[in-house]
Amino acid sequence: MSRQVAQLACPVLLALALISAFPTPAAASVRATVAVGTRSVRISPAILTFRCKKSGTGIPAYPNDVCTSNTVTIANGLLASQIYVLGANLAAAPGGKPWILCGGSGSACTGSGAKPGVNQYQASTLHAPARRGSGSTVLATTAKCDRAYQASAGCRAQANEAEMEQISVIGPKSSSSPIPVFSPIVTWFAVPP
User: Fold this and answer.
1) Counting CB atoms within 10 angstroms of each CB, which of 59, 64, 76, 85 has the fewest?
2) What is the DSSP letter of 113?
3) In CATH, 41-191 is 1.10.1760
């Protein structure tokens, strides 16, 4: 029995001797930094102020006053993108009805000459100054190509490209809201080209 143990022990000792005769492998690691681009749109300034033609203030007069915002810069982020824009219905003052965004590919404007009717308004982006795009996008509550960015190439914006725009609003024929609160919401966003 001890001879069998000795026979088994010899290969194990030989294997241990061979393992210890070779150098231990060195450990190595590699550290890599990967820059991940994020699609984004920067808007500056973030707040629009309006001046209306008929009223001379930031609140539209009836019927159908045309109001234009200050110039804002819409800047694409770190990745080439397509820039889209959309508008929204305006919330009503307490006791009033909201103003519905009309025109574009949204609901039809019901006033005379295809202008906004009662409790409706129309909004457009204006490229200022006109450079590459065709200049104007009539907004809807669904996303549309922002024509300030190469409209013929699907609103394509290069990384860090910036365009200057204004918002033009045609107010309603009349409104049933007791206090005209005028603050259109415009959203720009970037999608993969």
Assistant:
1) 59
2) G
3) no
